Amino acid sequence: MRVTLGAFIQSSLLLLVRADQWRLKDSTNCELNKKQTDLNSFLWTIKRDPPSYFYGTIHVPYTRVWDFIPENSKQAFQESNIVYFELDLTDPYTISALTSCQLLPQGENLQDVLPRDIYRRLKRHLEYVKLMMPSWMTPDQRGKGLYADYLFNAIAGNWERKRPVWVMLMVNSLTEADIKTRGVPVLDLYLAQEAERMRKRTGAVEKVEEQCHPLNGLNFSQVIFALNQTLLQQESLRAGSLQVPYTTEDLIRHYNCGDLNSIIFNHDTSQVPNFNNVTLPPSEQVTAQEIDSYFRQELIYKRNERMGKRVKALLEEHPDKSFFFAFGAGHFLGNNTVIDVLRRQGYEVEHTPAGQPINRRSSSSRPESEDHYDESPLLEPFLHELLHKEGDQGRPLEDDLLPHMLLPPDSLELLEKAERKMFKKKRRNKQKKQRHRHFNDLWVRIEESLHISSSSCRQRGKRGGGGACFSCSSQQDFPFSPEERHMA
């Protein structure tokens, strides 16, 4: 299940655009050998002591690219003290915030806001996807215990409550090629999990809202145009009258071949379609250009500026630490990149080819051992924060952890991990509250519960329930949560 976007925030939405826009160099000529000098490199070194690093990721299963990532990139990750991502994809609050961001206002459904014809076409397309999904899944996915119905609900569940722009992104991710990649962590998420396993300090340079609000900022007519174009594309693909000129496989080949072309990776980074299609009539081309320009400004250029400034602040706040910043590759390619922001601030940043040894830190700035793990907080304003005020909730937090979030691409492992984290945290908080109860309060509660449970047992006994009253009493006082019943 992966909401996001990454996070907001984790599918590379593969868009249909002008053929000449997408015709990059023929990556099939790239020999995907694994000699270190011939591998790709999306690593840049921020020159200081200790050095820090930028690393460009893509939103595809890590297993498709890991063997082609140079050893010096992996070494830079290994030797860094702190790893930063766009969003913290291992944080359940990130998942919760991304879900909330996608939903329509309370009481509204998609049927209420969409034109009738578009709603009918959308529903018909989702029915087609659900029907086809069992045949789209791979034997490996079935071997891992994934079921088509569960996978469909993890991606498209509760779709009638989503805002139209998020439904548009969801439809783009419900293709056979993308479905075959589900169930394996994308590269960003895998690095986050590895950093956690290695007990590295981690953080995020963006808040969910900063990725989410630009998508919700399109006006209604633009959103309807985008959703209609997306449905037209998918309907043409189903009818066989259109072929996708650019696929996930193309993206992976370009990445593994080290093609630093900004066009292809900018679309993976922004994760929104480019509707600027030459087949559109002139009036619609204007709308398409407006949407494309809006997203380029909001999801690439403005984010690059903001992320670069926060990277600078982190480097200045922690001059003795080595950082590894893993962001979408498009943030480092083209114009007005994160690297450009750092260079304007006086930092020397250089590309680090595969096979080139990374600069060793001085002995005085070696990373702390695991026995001296530093728990001190980093720059709080830049860490993801989601305030859950009890008075504003009206429902438990785990209600937000729904199995239909869109992180590019969907990773079911993330949802399960987030739910486990949330459950453990809730149980710890519950135990903590119980420890702080006053003795008299506890005595009254026990007395009340015994009275309730004993009367309950008597009623069951009258109905012929039998059984020990102790077990009934225990169940009344300490009810199992659904998660506990599942684990029992």
UniProtKB/TrEMBL annotation:
Residues 350-375 are annotated as: Disordered. GO terms for molecular function: metal ion binding; metalloendopeptidase activity. Its main location: membrane. Residues 1-19 form the signal peptide. GO terms for biological process: negative regulation of Wnt signaling pathway; proteolysis; Wnt signaling pathway. It is an enzyme of class 3 (hydrolase). The keyword tRNA-binding does not apply. One of its GO terms (cellular component) is plasma membrane. Divalent metal cations. Mn(2+) or Co(2+). It comes from the Eukaryota. Metalloprotease that acts as a negative regulator of the Wnt signaling pathway by mediating the cleavage of the N-terminal residues of a subset of Wnt proteins. Following cleavage, Wnt proteins become oxidized and form large disulfide-bond oligomers, leading to their inactivation. This is Metalloprotease TIKI. It comes from Solea senegalensis. The lineage of its organism: Eukaryota, Metazoa, Chordata, Craniata, Vertebrata.
